[in-house]
Input
Amino acid sequence: MARRLLWASLALAPVTILVDVLVHPDKTVLFVLAAASLVPLAWLIGEATEHAGEHTGPRIGGLLNASFGNAPEVIIAVIAVNDNLPGVVRGSMAGSVVSNILLVLGLALLVGEDRAELDLRSLLGQLGLVIFAVLLLTIPSVAGWHGDPNRHSLALLSIGPAVVLLGVYLVVTIAEIRRRPAHEVTNATGWSLRLSLVVLGVTTVVTALVSEILVHSLQAFAEAAHLSEFFISIVIVAIVGNAAEHGGAVVIARRGKMKLATEIAISSSAQVALLVIPVVTLASFAFKNPLALAFRPIELIAMGGAAAFVAFVIRDGRSRRWEGALLIAVYGGLVVAFYFAGDR
Output
């Protein structure tokens, strides 16, 4: 039933684009339409990469999932950079890290098998990478707490941490690929490789168009809803951009595959911290106003604190439903804090 709804809701994307071009409606309407459209698009990107991975094998398939799994978020961030909305970029990326660690993992633990065994070593390793990234991001962030946080000199200072994060991600990813089974032939029962790549390409283009509408209407929606741009970016945009991973982890947990579900939730946060943030930062130098990695204290505390708290909660290597409820409650508390934090 859920898959049928997702297939049907793909029609929202062309409807949103046509409405924007032909009708020119209120910006708040466009924001809601665009946000709703990105959810099935994110799911379809995940479907396409999964089917492509059946033909390429686990090694290349893993790289495809890593590269395109966060495509909606990267596209949103790049468009926001082009529109000179650095706060939206940083907020959405920080929100992605936090929501994956707390909200998605919490939901997976809540709906999944109670007291199931987890891959503690892998999960703690991923959480350690998030904490490492936060510590590294503190360097340019502290400098941004004084003076203009978006000044060009601070953007230049951000290059070093971005390169280090990307380098660590590549090293860890290569090591993980080598650790996996070497066989490259799988029993492909779904789409052909050509169809998978065509769907992936077309969906990515449509996602870019819808993301542009979302970013361009964000400010108007914030004013109409009486919400800060910071709150919208760190909560709403972050959740929308990671919709596929959010839903996928919960569905997998319901099927009893707790190791895989928890791995998706936490590794997604590590990917954002070590791949998405540096890629967007380095790519931003192709635009007029490059991105400075000047995160606010509340963003750094939320990311690092969430990773440390989850590491403490899962330290025994077993899943518990009450722990899932606790993580969701903590995320809810952070959402309230984000609301009162306001814009910079």
